[in-house]
Amino acid sequence: MDQIAGITYRQLDYWTRTGLVAASITPAAGSGTRRLYSFRDILIIKIIASLLDAGLSLKAVRTALNTLTDLGVDDLAATTLFSDGSTIYHCHSSDEIIDLLAAVQGVFGVAVPGLVKDLTTTITTLPTHNTDDTRDGASARGEAQVVPAMRSV
Question: Containing H/E element for 63?
């Protein structure tokens, strides 16, 4: 398991005995029997190892995995998890991020590239004004002017 998941047999045995992971193909049936883990089982083990390597506690990782299960997240291969070092977030969609350790607290995210695209589209569709015409028009009346100038942000 060290070669595949980057953990020791002792870690894997502990995680399995405590219910953190399970050998879904062939569980242990007594002393001396071999457990057989599925690809998904090994993916979960890699996720756990990665979160532990990021500095999170085993308790936090266990809570996050339980919350994912409670949320009905089955497709782990399509799941994005990230952490700030103190909590674990699940990116459910481009608009929804869930804090897995804070009783499923939703977090609001702003996708700045999407805003830039929307703003660019809006600005390029604005009517252009001749600066000579606006000098006497809007600025003389104290109105704000929008000059569509595209720059790299």
Answer: helix 58-70
- How distant is the alpha carbon of residue 136 from its chain centre? 52
Q: Which of 47, 3, 2 is nearest to 13 (CA)?
A: 2
Name the residue among 96, 92, 88, 35 with its Cα closest to residue 66: 88
C-alpha–C-alpha distance, residues 107 and 100, integer Å = 10
Distance of alpha carbon 131 from its chain centroid, rounded?
46
pLDDT band at 149; cut points 50, 70, 90: low
What would the pLDDT profile of 94-113 be if each residue is shown by its tens digit?
Answer: 777 888 888 655 555 556 77
| Dist CA 85 CA 116 (whole Å) | 29
d(CA 41, CA 44): 5
